[in-house]
Design a protein that fits this description.
Layout lengths: L5 H11 L3 E7 L2 E8 L13 E15 L2 E6 L3 E4 L5 E17 L8
Antiparallel strand pairs: 1-2, 2-6, 3-4, 3-5, 3-6
C-alpha cells in the first residue's frame, strides 16, 4: 500500500521548486500536485492521457476546448486526452491534485 498526507505532499512540492510535483506513478495511474500562484500563466499543453483535476484550494478558471468555467476548492474537472486545456484568471493560489490514467506520458510516442 502507498498512502500520502497532503501536508507532506505540499512540503515536498515546495522542496522540489516546480509547478508540478509527481508523487505516484504506476503503469495505469500517476498523480501529482500542481500549484499555480495567483496571476500566474498555466504553461501546460494537451496530454496524451485522460486527466482529472481535484482543486484543493484557490480560485481560478479553466478552459477545456471551447468551454470555460470557474473552479475553486472542491471542484473536479475531467479532461480527455489530447484536448487543449489550461487554468487562467488565477485569483488565489491554485492547488490541484492531478490524476492521469494511464500514467502521464504512457501514450506519448
Amino acid at each position: 500500500m502507498q498512502a500520502f498526507e497532503l501536508a507532506q505532499l505540499i512540503q515536498q512540492h515546495k522542496d522540489a521548486n516546480r509547478l508540478y510535483f509527481e508523487f505516484l506513478k504506476v503503469s495505469d495511474l500517476s498523480m501529482g500536485l500542481y500549484v499555480l500562484p495567483a496571476g500566474e500563466t498555466d504553461p501546460q499543453s494537451p496530454h496524451t492521457e485522460d486527466e482529472v483535476y481535484y482543486v484543493v484550494s484557490g480560485k481560478a478558471k479553466i478552459k477545456v476546448a471551447d468551454e470555460d468555467r470557474t473552479v475553486q476548492a472542491g471542484s473536479v474537472v475531467y479532461v480527455a486526452k489530447n484536448v487543449e486545456h489550461r487554468f487562467h484568471s488565477i485569483e488565489e493560489e491554485l492547488m490541484v491534485l492531478v490524476f492521469f490514467a494511464p500514467a502521464e506520458y504512457s501514450n506519448k510516442s
